[in-house]
Specification:
Helix content is 44%, strand content 26%. It has 127 residues and is α/β, with parallel strands linked by helices. Helix 3 links the parallel strand 4 and strand 5.
């Protein structure tokens, strides 16, 4: 089994979650669950997710299924998520599809390639 790593740091206006490991549907669902639980436990609803997963890309269908399941679990929680994909091999189309799956379920999610841009978007609504 590949190493999965997550660190969650509480910052003044949001949580920052850094994720590493294999790019699999299981890893994605695992970190989505852990981040959602941390946000609810700490009562911080804005989260910056910085992901650098390795390995082959997840199919659009698998990503849709994982995002739908993870998003359904977060409906009504008030979460707002800025997601940064650091791996340049990841598909922009998959990122935008994941963003749309969450957004259509009422969870504001925006995907980025740059941490500073993601943080600026997240903080623009946190004030």
């Amino acid at each position: 089994m590949d190493q999965y790593r997550i660190s969650i740091e509480q910052r003044p206006q949001y949580l920052c979650a850094t994720v590493g490991g294999a790019n699999t549907p299981e890893t994605i669902l695992r970190y989505m669950t852990e981040i959602r639980e941390a946000c609810l436990r700490l009562r911080v609803l804005n989260v910056l997710v910085v992901a650098n997963l390795h390995g082959p890309g997840v199919s659009m269908l698998d990503l849709y299924k994982v995002m739908a399941l993870g998003s359904d679990e977060a409906i009504g929680s008030g979460l707002r998520v800025a997601y940064v994909e650091l791996n340049p091999e990841r598909s922009d189309a998959n990122m935008f599809m994941a963003e749309n799956v969450a957004t259509t379920r009422g969870i504001p999610v925006r995907t980025f390639r740059d941490v500073a841009a993601a943080e600026a978007w997240l903080l623009s609504a946190a004030t």
